[in-house]
Structures are given as C-alpha cells and as structure tokens.
Amino acid sequence: MKYYAVTGRIPGDDEDTTLLLGQCASRGVARIKFQDELVRDQRLTPTEVDHLMQEHDCICFINAVLSSDTPISEE
C-alpha cells in the first residue's frame, strides 16, 4: 500500500482541492476516495451527482494523483 495525495475539483468549481488520503490499495482506490470526499464536503445530493455524470461523464475532474512509499504531509 502507498500513501496518496489527489488534486481535482467538482465541475463548475473555480478552485482545485488537494486531499491527503493516507494509505490506499491502489491509484484507482485513491481516486474513488477523493471523489467520495468531495461529494461529502460539497454536500452534493444524489440528483446533483447524477446530473454531473450526465453532463460531464464524471463526478469530478482529477488533475494529479501523487503516491509515496512514506506518509505525505502538508509541511
């Protein structure tokens, strides 16, 4: 398992968000965890999530996925 940091945004937002996700089994798991966190943080309803999928074919845009064998910190 590696440590991950992911940067991206919900379509329509002007600014990216970077989240330190800790250990994940894979890059794909980190991407899903990031998406779930953004949906929760933005308090998106299931209807809003469905609309994003229909309009953008995704729930969030991901700009970068960083991985490390050691913990990633903000410092």
Characterise this structure.
The protein is of the alpha+beta class. Helices cover 36% and strands 32% of the residues. It has two helices and three strands; from the N terminus they run ββααβ. The chain has a three-stranded antiparallel β-sheet, with helices on one face. A hairpin with a 7-residue loop joins strand 1 and strand 2. The longest helix is centred in the middle third of the chain and has 16 residues, at 27-42. The radius of gyration is 13 Å and the shape is elongated. The mean pLDDT is 94.
Low-pLDDT residue spans = none
Please write the string of helix (H) and strand (E) elements: EEHHE
Helix content: 25-40%
Give the strand line-up of the largest sheet.
Answer: 2-1-3
Number of domains: 1
Q: Strand share of the residues?
A: 25-35%
Number of helices: 2
Sheet/helix structural class: alpha+beta
* Span of the ends, CA to CA: 22 Å
- At CATH level 3, the topology is Ubiquitin-like (UB roll)
Shape annotation: elongated
How many β strands by DSSP? 3
Q: Given this structure, which CATH class is correct? A: Alpha Beta
Annotated CATH architecture: Roll
- Largest beta-sheet characterization: 3 strands, antiparallel
Mean pLDDT over all positions: 94
Mind telling me the C-alpha Rg?
13 Å
Which helices and strands appear, and what pairs or packs with what?
Blueprint: E1 2-9, E2 17-24, H1 27-42, H2 46-56, E3 61-68
Antiparallel strand pairs: 1-2, 1-3
Give structural attributes:
three-stranded antiparallel beta sheet, Ubiquitin-like (UB roll), elongated, 75 residues, alpha+beta
